[in-house]
Amino acid sequence: MASVLTCIYCNEDINGYKTSNESFFNDREEDQICEKCDIKLNMQNCGICNINIQKNDRYDNLICEMCSKLEKVDEHNNVIDFHNVDWYGGLQSSTKINNTIVINKLTDGLFFINGIKCRALEHRFGGVVYIRV
Ligand SMILES: [Zn+2]
Ligand SMILES: [Zn+2]
């Protein structure tokens, strides 16, 4: 019996395109996704500028790389940035107050970009990620 595969999201014919679902041997029709929908499902929007970025399963309000490089300020309008504490991770902030850099290892990660409240988080494998709060 010839079966036409249709995308479970948009109902279009799939034309042999295999989904990003892990199992290549999964024949269940309900798991078939077309390329277009697959891309859509694998992208999300930057929490600030709204451009498409790689989907992140942990943070759906992630901020894109460009926005992450914009100037960050704390609630007193002091320029702030975030880093890992050391090679093992952790999160600390460095705030510029009266031309002095103040390190805070107990930071809550909160900051603002263009008045938008955001939070820095320690990334699972090191590094820092930024999300819109
Ligand atoms: Zn589709
Ligand atoms: Zn952005």
Q: Helix fraction?
A: under 10%
The end-to-end distance, rounded to whole angstroms, is 52 Å
In the predicted model, the low-confidence regions spanning at least 5 consecutive residues are none
**Backbone structural class:** mainly beta
Mean pLDDT: 87
Supply the number of structural domains: 2
Structural Rg: 21 Å
Give the tags:
single chain, 133 residues, mainly beta, 2 helices, 28% strand
Task: Break the fold down into its secondary structure elements and pairings.
Blueprint (H helix, E strand, L loop, with lengths): L34 H7 L1 E3 L6 E3 L10 H4 L11 E4 L8 E6 L2 E5 L5 E4 L2 E7 L5 E5 L1
Antiparallel strand pairs: 1-2, 3-4, 4-5, 6-7, 7-8
The structure holds zinc ion (2 copies).
The site of one zinc ion has 7 residues, from helix 1.
Characterise the protein shown here.
With 133 residues, the protein is mainly β. It folds into 2 domains: 1-41, no CATH class; 56-132, no CATH class. The chain is built from 2 helices and 8 strands, in the order αββαββββββ. The protein has helices spanning 35-41, 65-68, and strands spanning 43-45, 52-54, 80-83, 92-97, 100-104, 110-113, 116-122, 128-132. Strand 3 and strand 4 (92-97) form a beta hairpin. The longest helix has 7 residues, at 35-41. The N and C termini lie far apart (52 Å). The mean pLDDT is 87. It binds zinc ion (2 copies). Residues 46, 48-49, 51, 63-64, 66-67 line the site of one zinc ion (ZN).
